Amino acid sequence: MSIVKRVEKKVENLLTEGDYDLVAVEYVKEGSERVLRVFIENKEGELDLDDCARLSHRLSDWLDEEDFISESYILEISSPGVERPLRGRDDFQRFSGESVYIKTYAPIRGEKEFTGKLLGLEKDLVRLELAEDEVVELPFKSIAAARLNLDI
Predict the structure, then answer these.
(1) Which of 35, 42, 53, 118 registers the highest number of CB atoms within 10 A of its CB?
(2) Radius of gyration of the chain from Cα atoms?
(3) Centroid of chain to Cα 68
(4) The model's pTM
């Protein structure tokens, strides 16, 4: 099991005790350092420093105990921010009506990047309004990355 998957599973277990959701886990190299970044939010989409600190202490203790990451790293717990990633099918329903940026694995209608108003998910198609009367339907499985978009 990968580092990210193992951490996701543990964080989800830790968060069942509160009113929080896991948004994403990243394990990335930034410069010469490794960063294990965990994004969480509560049901209202808010988060405060005390929430992050509590999870950080509990997760840090577990990571020290399990000791499955061989290299040194920095642990960060934070809110996903205004350009929150959209992960599962629920996110594509929850954020219907919001401005989003979507990148696909392969070109659709000659494009791999789309920005517009999210109209939701119907069956396996993400519906996106690009312009006033222009709607594109993107197969859910074709989406490489998606996030809320502040730029529109």
Answers:
(1) 118
(2) 17
(3) 23
(4) 0.73
